[in-house]
Amino acid sequence: MIKRIIAIVCILIMVLPMGVFCAFADEINYVICDEDHQVLEGEALEDYNKYASNLYDETGVQAFFSYVKDIGEQTMAEYAAEQFNKYASSKDGVWMQLTDDYYGYYFFGKLENEASVDDETQMWNQWCSYDTYYDALAAYIDYVKEIDSRLNRDDLTSAETPLVIAAPASHPDRVVDNVRLLDDEEKASLQEKLDEISERHKLDLVVVTASTLDGKSPEAYADDYFDYNGYGLGEDRSGALLLVSMEDRDWWISTRGYGITAFTDYGIQEIGEEIKPYLSDGDYYDAFVRYAELCDDFVTQSSTGNAYDINNPPEIAKRGPSAKTIVIAVLACLGGGFLFAGIPVGIMKGKLKSVRMNPDAKNYVRDGSFVLTNQRDMFLYRTVTRTAKPKNSSSGGSSTHHSSSGASHGGGGGKF
After folding, report:
1. CA 314/CA 394 separation, integer angstroms
2. Do 410 and 255 contact (CB within 8 A), yes or no?
3. What is the pLDDT of residues 57-73, one digit of tens each?
4. pTM value?
5. Alpha-carbon distance 27 to 48, whole Å?
6. Which of 28-37, 293-302, 383-392 has the lowest mean pLDDT?
7. CB count, 10 Å around CB of 155?
8. Are 175 and 187 in contact (CB under 8 A)?
9. Which of 32, 76, 304, 336 lies at 20 to 30 Å from 52 by C-alpha?
């Protein structure tokens, strides 16, 4: 009897750890989908869950993604809270909910007070900028990690050195004309204008000119100049910096914080198209003033909740040719006309000095000299109507990237 009891105990000792191990062996599935929306499968699903699991191991934060067709009578927030409590093993995390008609981000635990509406907007803009669910979900995880990192930086003691670059006590100049494209009066006037607009909107507007980018791309140079020189207003260091580089005649607008929301990719290109003619003509002061005016308009529009974008384009009065350009063009046309038409006509006129005008043409025709032997119809012209091919549609919004400091930036640019 004793031997039998000992055997049973030994079996339980061997089996119980196996059962406990199996209970904890299953990894949490961070992608919750219904049968109609299996957005990730196989290795892609496995990789994503590992990525989300690493986030949890590093930060204690769990980031779920759910795509379901119907959530019943519940609100999105109620459904998200119920599902998070059901699947999450941590009190801190994010639940991204997607249906056929709606989307939403719901933050729990320590992230609930840290995440802002602007964070949700940027997360959604990033989501829309990717072509595959795998890439979009990876970007979603990265952004959650950034929010947690920002929270940790806020919790640092004064004895620790924060990772974020703090703004100096006195605000740096908003006009940094390294190339001296402006005279002193123009620079002072532009500085005053940018200061007024920036303080009114609580969003830094900056103009920087450079003779060389030191081997960097316009994007990297503009982002770093913004980050490492103390620009940006508010907790999210909102702003927009216009860089004009004379090295390869580049322009670039770098945005950060609320600037990413106010200046969409489409809006940045619209601003660029407006200021490029001024830059090309060397009217730099006019280009920078126009940039400031457009930024004022764009931020004002964004504050209504409907920023200028591909489906809500700004009504910008396109710049016409300058008076100087018009005068030069007219003089060139007149001079060319006299030169190329006047000389041949004068030569022909000189050959006709012995000829007298005769208003009666019949004196030049001999009777019976004209005989019509053949005739035919000839098709000379036709009218062709061409219809433009529709361009590919875009979801709009602002694409983002990370600068060398780790901050999120939007932006765009081109040549002039």
Report:
1. 16
2. yes
3. 888 888 888 888 777 78
4. 0.48
5. 12
6. 383-392
7. 9
8. yes
9. 76
Query: Which residues are CB-neighbours of 411 under 8 A, at least 6 positions away?
Result: 219, 222, 223, 252, 253, 254, 255, 268, 401
Extract the tokens encoding 210: 């450079």
Count the residues in the chain.
416
405 contacts: CB under 8 Å, gap ≥ 6? 164, 165, 223, 224, 227, 228
Reported in sequence order, the residue ranges of 230-331 that DSSP labels E, i.e. its strands, are 239-245, 250-256
One-letter identity of residue 328: I
Fold designation for 175-320+402-415: Diaminopimelate Epimerase; Chain A, domain 1 (3.10.310)
Which one-letter DSSP state was computed for residue 338?
I
Q: Answer yes or no: are the C-beta atoms of 227 and 405 closer than 8 Å.
A: yes
Beta-bridge partners for 245? 210, 250
Q: In angstroms, rounded to a whole number, what is the distance separating the alpha carbons of residues 202 and 302?
A: 13
Fold classification of 29-154 (topology level): Diaminopimelate Epimerase; Chain A, domain 1 (3.10.310)
Q: Which long-range contacts (CB under 8 A, 24 or more apart) does 121-129 make?
A: 121/261, 122/260, 122/261, 122/398, 122/400, 122/408, 123/96, 124/397, 125/260, 125/261, 125/397, 125/398, 125/399, 125/400, 126/399, 126/400, 128/395, 128/396, 128/397, 129/397, 129/399, 129/400
In the predicted model, is pLDDT for residue 379 greater than 60?
Answer: yes
- Phi, psi torsion values for 93, nearest 5 degrees: 175, -170
